[in-house]
Design goal:
The complex is a heterodimer of chains A (685) and B (111). In chain A, 44% of the residues lie in helices and 22% in strands. Chain A is α+β, with helices and mostly antiparallel strands and 685 residues long. Chain B has 111 residues and is of the alpha/beta class. Helix content of chain B is 38%, strand content 31%. Chain B contains four helices and five strands; from the N terminus they run E-E-E-H-E-H-E-H-H. The longest helix of chain B has 16 residues. The two termini of chain B are 25 Å apart. The chains are: A alpha+beta (685), B alpha/beta (111).
Chain lengths: 685, 111
């Protein structure tokens, strides 16, 4: 690839990123249309997004994209001008076009757009435009705002921002469009800001224009030409008569004559453009470097810990430590994104499922601005999709059923995110029929997931729906009911160091609750000693640490396992030194410490030599640098330069569950992943 | 007219080329010239200005030019004027000239 191709790719990459945002705007806007009716501002937003894609696609010569967005734009134009009204069929057509547009954007990015058949869809959109009859009432309302004035001259002041060209915008195309709606009687290019050739940034925009256009079109029509560049320029359009009146009134700038909302909108857009796009790799590189700085700083502290330092040096070290921590927090914040970036895909999912299943379902979203690490957010899409599918398919009843039990025909699924105790909680709640406890229990017994004489509480019974292959659906549909999904949800959430629980009330609905850490890159941990090694146990999983008495530790499974008695409760005891074959570690439990952990309500005792203290650690991937190690989620570098493994408590729990499951099922092999909840009293040997 | 290539001439297959023809420096534009070419065009424009010769934009084979690239040529023209030199277009297609006219640049370029 030569320099020119790299340059072009850079501009195209920006276009594709922006196109993805515009596509989201189109889709969410179309879905909102169903609620709001043909609200003009919303229609303008959708139109602007389509127009932006079309404009930039034209600049790059992406013809397929241009054709499709042009056809889509024509339908949207009819809607916003009031020449037609939306209806469910038209919304479906537009949503379908939005989907195809997404495919064409993706294919264009790979240089394969020609392979996507769009002719049929373009024809369908054109046919829709042609067949649309203008509803008189709607048209009359909009006519006043859109009415063209006969032969007026419009003054356009247009000043692109410096970054304008970098967005792939070609102003000549814009002038062509202006010429199509009227006669450009004067076009004055202001080049006062144009620097000397030596000082010129060739990709920056320095020019500005004052254009006079004689046109029969309204100012709003002419403004529409600038839709796809509005956020990146100063734009004023005013009829000459108005401008003259403003001048007579002593206005210093014709801008004063422009409608106030227009100016405000432009000002808002300027504020929005104060952000910059940075490739994720650069941010990750920065985070990595800051992580190294934190480690180096800890090493310096440790090296100097036992030395006598001057007060000035101690103060300086303290300042460095404080600044390093602040720097780390600021850098981590760069990776934080609002969870709304993943939530925004679900209105469409719920809409489509509702149509498919013949149900009336509304999705309420709360806390979309709650921030989470980008890496966590990217992995949340699939589990949330499964949960929402299940809520709509299994939770929400048919309209008739809801009516019969005195509910509103429209079911509600609520997606909610909020902070709680240093974690982010995401809840998927529905107001449907709730989980059928008896049916889940019967199915679990039939599938060998529990015994018929086992007495499980509600939480444990409901937790069975996360077992692989578990499903109570009588009819297998392509929406859900194959028994795949909920176990994947659980695994995905756990892979993010999170946990999922479910609660349900018969007749009132169910609530799935996901608890997630804010980030995967740093972790609050408890450092523990094992022989000469140090391990880190995630603090979130720790309930307490206890030095056991001799009678608190008992052999089970004929000596193949051990339990720790904590206030009458038997917890599986894992000797980490044996699991990781560490020599020189404490063998006598009364000489060590039992760290009690809890995952998904299941407790576990970890026998360690000693507890060293709490610390925040930078998580490094072992898998990426070496290979997966069982029960280890990562590693960190300690202040003395040594590497410490970070325990995967959920996996340790699974290892322990596997052992006890074998026991209670009387030798019958049950895969470890079933993670069957078993009351503690049944474990006694 | 003696024809010799200026130093640091970019590959012949690119859309931009700088050549010296007698007492003129020719900046040859071909195909579509746009923002992705702006940096290279800027470098050539600086070279052209440094020759202290009149610059001719040879646009016979130019199909399309965007305003980012045009702005570089405008800056070249201003610089040449300050140096007492000048810039002219040759063979620009009608569509390019029309674009210049609509954008109020035709007069600046003398086209």
């Amino acid at each position: 690839m030569n320099d020119m191709e790299i340059d072009l790719k850079r501009f195209q990459d920006t276009f594709f990123e922006e196109a993805a945002e515009h596509l989201e705007t189109i889709e969410s806007g179309l879905l909102r249309l169903e609620e709001t009716g043909d609200e003009l501002e919303l229609l303008n937003t959708i139109f602007r997004a389509a127009h932006s894609i079309k404009g930039a696609a034209g600049s790059f010569g992406f013809n397929e994209l241009g054709s499709l967005t042009h056809a889509l734009e024509n339908v949207l134009d009819q809607l916003r001008s009031g020449r037609r009204a939306s209806d469910p069929a038209l919304t479906q057509l537009l949503l379908g076009a939005s989907d195809t547009l997404g495919e064409v954007v993706a294919a264009t990015k790979k240089g394969e757009a020609a392979g996507i058949p769009i002719a049929g869809l373009v024809h369908e959109l054109e046919a829709s435009v042609n067949s649309a009859a203008a509803p008189a009432a709607v048209a009359a309302v909009v006519a006043t705002a859109a009415a063209p004035l006969a032969g007026q001259v419009l003054q356009i002041t247009f000043e692109p921002e410096r970054e304008f060209f970098r967005q792939g915008q070609d102003l000549f195309l814009l002038f062509d469009e202006i010429a199509q709606v009227g006669e450009i009687v004067e076009s004055r290019c202001h080049r006062e800001a144009l620097p000397d050739l030596e000082a010129l940034d060739p990709e920056a925009s320095y020019l500005g224009w004052e254009i006079r256009v004689r046109t029969k079109r309204s100012a709003r029509d002419v403004r529409d030409i600038f839709l796809f560049v509005e956020g990146a320029c100063r734009l004023e359009i005013v009829a000459e008569a108005v401008a003259a009146a403003a001048a007579v009134a002593g206005a210093t700038k014709t801008a004063a004559a422009a409608p106030a909302p227009e100016r405000r909108a432009n000002a808002d857009r300027r504020v929005e453009s104060s952000s910059i796009r940075v490739p994720t790799e650069k941010v990750d590189g920065l985070i990595n470097l800051v992580g190294e700085l934190v480690i180096s700083q800890a090493m310096v502290n440790q090296s100097l810990a036992e030395q006598s330092l001057s007060a000035a040096l101690e103060e300086a070290l303290s300042a460095v430590q404080r600044t390093t921590r602040e720097l780390q927090e600021q850098v981590m914040a760069i990776r934080m994104l609002p969870i709304g970036t993943v939530f925004q895909r679900f209105p469409r999912l719920v809409h489509d499922l509702g149509v498919k299943l013949g149900k009336r379902v509304r999705l309420d979203i709360e806390g979309a601005d709650t921030e989470l690490d980008k890496g966590v957010i990217e992995q949340l899409g699939d589990p949330l999709t499964h949960l929402i599918r299940n809520s709509v398919d299994h939770g929400i009843e048919d309209p008739e059923q809801r009516r019969d039990v005195g509910k509103r025909e429209e079911g509600v699924v609520t997606l909610r995110a909020f902070h709680e105790g240093g974690n982010v909680i995401i809840e998927v709640t529905d107001d449907g029929k709730g989980l059928d406890r008896a049916r889940i229990r019967d199915k679990a017994i039939a599938q060998g997931l529990m015994r018929s004489d086992q007495a499980l509480n509600d939480e444990d019974v409901y937790g069975l729906i996360f077992a692989p292959g578990f499903s109570t659906a009588t009819v297998v549909s392509d929406v859900s009911g194959r028994g795949v999904g909920m176990d994947v949800v659980k695994r995905n959430v756990e892979s993010l160091n999170g946990a999922i629980t479910v609660s349900s009330t018969p007749g009132n609905g169910s609530r799935f609750r996901i608890r997630l850490p804010l980030t995967l890159a740093i972790l609050d941990g408890l450092s523990v000693q094992l022989g000469r090694e140090v391990f880190i146990v995630p603090l979130l999983s720790i309930r307490q640490s206890v030095r056991p008495a001799a009678e608190d530790v008992r052999n089970v499974l004929g000596g193949r396992g051990e339990v720790f008695l904590l206030r009458g409760e038997q917890l599986p005891l894992v000797r980490l030194s044996r699991l990781f074959s560490i020599a020189g570690a404490v063998e006598d439990p009364t000489k060590g410490i039992v760290v009690v952990t809890e995952t998904d309500g299941h407790r576990l005792g970890l026998l360690v030599d000693d507890v060293l203290g709490q610390q925040q650690v930078v998580v490094k991937s072992i898998e990426r640098n070496y290979r997966k190690i069982e029960a280890v989620m990562g590693a960190t570098i300690l202040g003395d330069g040594r590497v410490a493994f970070i325990m995967d408590v959920a996996e340790l729990q699974r290892i322990a569950s596997r052992r006890k499951t074998r026991d209670v099922t009387a030798g019958r092999e049950v895969p470890a992943e079933h993670d069957v909840p078993v009351p503690a009293q049944e474990e006694k040997s | 007219m003696a024809k010799k290539k200026a130093q640091d001439v970019p590959p012949a297959h690119g859309p931009l080329r700088l050549e010296q023809h007698g007492e003129e420096t020719w900046l040859l534009l071909e195909g579509s010239v746009h923002i992705a070419h702006a940096r290279e065009l800027h470098a050539l424009a600086r070279e052209a200005a440094a020759t202290s010769l009149p610059v001719v934009i040879q646009a016979q084979r130019l199909q399309r030019i965007d305003l980012a690239a045009t702005q570089v040529l405008l800056a070249l023209r201003e610089t040449l004027l300050k140096q007492g030199g000048h810039l002219r277009w040759s063979g620009a297609p009608a569509s390019v000239l029309e674009s210049m006219r609509l954008a109020g640049l035709a007069e600046s370029f003398g086209v």
